Amino acid sequence: MSLFENRSDAGRRLAQELMEYENRDDVVVLALPRGGVPVGYEVAQALCAPLDIILVRKLGVPGHEELAMGAIASGGILVLNHEVVETLQIDHADIHAAAARERQELERREQAYRGSAPRPGVRGKIVILVDDGLATGASMLAAVDSLRQKEPKKIVVAVPTAAPETCRQFEALVDQIVCAATPEPFRGVGLWYEDFSQTSDEEVRDLLAQAESKHSTCP
Question: Contact 181/189 with Cβ under 8 angstroms?
Answer without folding.
Answer: no
